[in-house]
Amino acid sequence: MSERLIIFDTTLRDGEQSPGASMNAEEKLAIARLLEKMRVDVIEAGFPAASPGDFEAVRQVAREISESTVCALARAVKGDLDRAAEAVKPARSQRIHTFIATSPIHMKEKLRMDENQVLERAVWAVTRARNYTDDVEFSPEDAGRSELDFLCRIIEAAIKAGARTINIPDTVGYNMPDQFAGIIEQLMEKIPNSDQAVFSVHCHNDLGVAVANSLAAVQKGARQVECTINGLGERAGNASLEEIVMAVRTRRDLFPCDTNIDTTQIVPASRLVSSVTGFPVQPNKAIVGINAFAHESGIHQDGVIKKRETYEIMRPQDVGWTTNRMVLGKHSGRHAFQERMKVLGFGFESDEDLQAAFEKFKDLADRKHEIFDDDLIGLQADSGIQQVNDRLELASLHVCSKTGARPTAVVSLMVDGQTVESSADGNGPVDASFRAVKSVVDRSPNLELYSVNSITGGTDAQGEVSVRLRENGKVVNGHGADTDIVIASVKAYINAMNRLESSERAHPQTDSMI
Ligand code: KIV
Ligand code: ZN
Which of 91, 158, 199, 461 is the most exposed place for a label (fewest CB within 10 A)? Predict the structure, then answer.
């Protein structure tokens, strides 16, 4: 029987560090539910010390998720460790992941600590975390550029202090597969107590080899891989979960281990993460790109018709590609809607929430003949957008666009419960509408990203719009979906404006990404 490869998903933590990929608590919970359903072993739900919002999101995931271990990240400092412990406390199975940098450049320039001080702090942090839980993971940050002898010393000490998982991060994505695999092999060979911990890897994709590095390490004995859906993550991202899982499953001849992942949840999870973050999946992305199983050339098509295996090494249905069949229509009832949403990973906290979502579904079904899973995901992303304490809500929009004339928009917004109307013209209907919204809220953030994706095919498809706004160093994303892309755009813009305002209330002075 093959050994178990532990899948540690960090979409909600490192993935969220991807510029512009911030998620609210409700979105994180929806992703966590789907990861649990996918049978991910460990969900790193966030970095609780980063902000009160992060703390609350981790706590909610810890309360709700029971089948996966819920993990929180903490620097090797008291405040972080205590916050992390408190956040994961409600979880049935909890883990604290603590880290400190070990590379010469990080120790000298960032920490201003020497090797002995770093080692002492690591031991102290692991010991403190162990007072809260038995399941403690330790990462020597920037291990990929650290001295091997020092890595051996600090890891041996961390294991002695009680770390059960030792994670080796290639924090800046600097290593090449042979080299990284060599580090893992040597650490496992040289550290006398290495058999008392699971060795894990966490690879960044700066040189495009995060998955290759992780897989090479697995061949040398690593038994946990840290990864993210769609390879989301800081800068160029992390190793992508779907590629790791399908590589070990497809090449059983090369890997002496396998995961417990239900691979049919891979495509739904990819869609959900893409819809929540507004980051489209590139068409040729392995496993989850729209072209991953498409055969264009006649020779390939002919081969696949004769024998699928001529050009396909995996079956699309094994990773969750369906024919995007119609799942519901305008005659579907509330129960069928609720059941389908459950399958897609969405629960409703109250009957009122379910009713509100059902009404939106009915409204969509009236306008759009066929409702696919992707429409439901888009709908939910859209419903999750309006938060209770949002100041702004779209009441109505009227746009006029005709050849030879400058488009105009009249927008009516609910601002703190009062209706306010404004009009503007612009270079196009979207530009005119955004100008009208801006004049109501009296602020002018920079529009850094505007992207429209069609959720399904056909001219009646819903458009899913993402916008990114920057103002005074704060960056927020907004999303909106509608069969009318101008309305979807305005919803996304208002969503981002609300996020700017709530971030200002939460962090009046900060200059950070939220
Ligand atoms: O990339 C990195 O080093 C990290 C650590 C916190 C594990 O994300
Ligand atoms: Zn990382």
Answer: 461
